[in-house]
Design a protein that fits this description.
Layout lengths: L1 E6 L3 H11 L5 E6 L3 H4 L4 H4 L7 H8 L5 E5 L11 E6 L7 E5 L13 E4 L2 H10 L4 E4 L4 H9 L12 E5 H6 L8 E2 L14 E6 L3 H7 L5 H16 L8 E8 L2 E9 L6 E9 L6 H21 L2 H7 L2
Parallel strand pairs: 1-2, 1-3, 6-7, 6-8
Antiparallel strand pairs: 3-10, 4-10, 5-8, 5-9, 11-12, 12-13
């Protein structure tokens, strides 16, 4: 049997899906699926973000067009989908955001009033908090298109209308474009979107053959970490385009979580950090409980600090 693997048709989605599918058991066929986010050029903040890159892939999975759907984990809605099972969460790539600027500039070296592009409300809020003088420009498009907005044509350098753009380092690496990064943004200062850098592999509920074909790509520690991050998103009733950053990791026998919610103008940030001691770093049930515990405590603290207002203001 040939395993039909569904993915978006962007260069990044195809690159990451092909690399991942090479690790699946048996014969594989890549099937491109067009999603709402691929054809609608509306700002992600206006689209709402949640599910725009996911729904069509899930429909293809449910109707049997594909046997497996591969997503960027950060695009998945936090509520479960009926009839669909999360079969694997891949080991997370470096989750940091990267500034890609003209002339090799870093964030601190950008001139006053520099124009920086991003389609992410979180990144926009973080940029405004770090550099209130910057002009943050809402942009859409695939990775090469966005890079060209800042660095121009690869051959001539012409055509740039921005001073910099901010992109996920993991995506740049998967496309072989890591050299375009001029500054890597520290996670403590610029926490990224929940689950950034990880891929989600979904199958139809009860499809044991598909689950068996992909299960070896599941990374237990990453699954627990992104579960904690996404529980914060759910607890604050925020969509995947919300101005919210979260970072969890399993290290030194503990699950650590830090989450931050931002005012869109960068004027306010509410942060909570919590940890859970583990008896085992490989016990799935214990890791799931640890993720639930740290997320619930973080959400309670953030709500007490007023995070609900920041999230609601961004809707």
């Amino acid at each position: 049997m040939t395993l039909k693997v569904g993915t978006r048709g962007s260069a990044l989605a195809l690159a990451q899906t092909r690399a991942l599918a090479a690790r699946f058991a048996g014969e594989v066929e890549i099937v491109e699926v067009t999603t709402q986010g691929d054809v609608d050029r509306t700002s992600l903040s206006q689209l709402g973000g949640t599910g725009v890159f996911v729904s069509a892939l899930r429909d293809a999975l449910l109707d049997g067009t594909v046997d497996v759907a591969v997503h960027s984990m950060k695009d998945l809605p936090t509520s479960p989908a009926e009839g669909i099972e999360l079969a694997a969460v891949t080991k997370r790539e470096d989750a940091r955001d990267a500034l890609c600027a003209r002339d090799g500039l870093t964030l601190d070296a950008l001139p006053e009033g520099a124009r920086v592009g991003t389609g992410s409300p979180r990144r926009a809020a973080q940029l405004r908090a770090a550099r209130p003088d910057l002009e943050v420009v809402d942009i859409r498009g695939n990775v090469p298109t966005r890079l060209a907005r800042a660095q121009g044509d690869p051959e001539t350098g012409e055509g740039a209308d921005l001073d910099a753009v901010v992109l996920a380092l993991a995506g740049l690496r998967r496309l072989g474009l890591e050299g375009a990064a001029t500054d890597l943004l520290d996670l403590s200062r610029f926490p990224t979107a929940p689950a950034q850098g990880a891929l989600a592999v979904e199958v139809r509920a009860g499809d044991a053959a598909a689950r068996a074909a992909v299960v070896k790509t599941d990374h237990v520690a990453t699954r627990a970490a992104v579960d904690a991050e996404r529980r914060v998103l759910a607890g604050l009733e925020a969509g995947c385009a919300a101005p919210l950053g979260a970072r969890a990791e399993v290290e030194d026998g503990m699950l650590f979580l830090t989450a931050s919610a931002y005012a869109l103008d960068g004027s306010r940030r509410i942060t909570a950090s919590h940890a859970h001691t583990l008896d085992s770093v490989s016990d799935r049930a214990e890791l799931a409980e640890a993720a639930r515990d740290v997320a619930e405590r973080a959400v309670a603290e953030m709500l007490e600090g007023g995070a609900a207002e920041l999230v609601a203001a961004a809707r």
